[in-house]
Amino acid sequence: MADKTERAADTMAPKMDRAAEKTGAVVADSVITTKVKADIFKEPELKSMAIHVETEKGVVMLSGFVDSKADAEKAVRLAKSVDGVTSVKSAIKVK
């Protein structure tokens, strides 16, 4: 019986490690998204509701509408400055 339990534990350990890695990535991505949104929200000239932020594996994707090219560039700079961001892709459009 103990032998079966050990074998089951050995079989399950790698699966649990992979699940933990995925969960960790999701948590990290959600933290990055929250920080980027907070930084954008703090900028008075950026309309935070008009910029959508998503993060996957450290890559931040920005989309939405802003009033000027300078605003779009500022949103990208803010996103790049957040810890954990590996790159930023922007689909922000100027109205």
Describe the structure.
The chain is an alpha+beta fold. The chain contains 2 helices and 3 strands; from the N terminus they run αββαβ. The protein has helices spanning 2-42, 69-80, and strands at 51-56, 59-66, 87-94. A 3-stranded mixed β-sheet has the order 1-2-3. The chain is elongated, with a radius of gyration of 19 Å. The protein starts with a helix and ends with a strand. The model has no long low-confidence stretch (mean pLDDT 82).
| Overall shape | elongated
Question: Number of DSSP helices?
Answer: 2
Helix content: 55-70%
Oligomeric state of the chains in view: single chain
Number of strands: 3
Distance between the termini: 68 Å
Spatial order of the strands in the main sheet? 1-2-3
Which stretches of 5+ consecutive residues score pLDDT under 50? none
Q: Mind describing the biggest β-sheet?
A: 3 strands, mixed
Cα gyration radius (Å): 19 Å
Mean pLDDT comes to 82
| Beta content | 15-25%
Structural class: alpha+beta
Order of SSEs, N→C? HEEHE
Protein name: BON domain-containing protein
Domain BON: 28-95
InterPro entries: BON_dom, Lipoprotein_DolP, Transpt-assoc_nodulatn_dom_bac
Organism: Massilia mucilaginosa
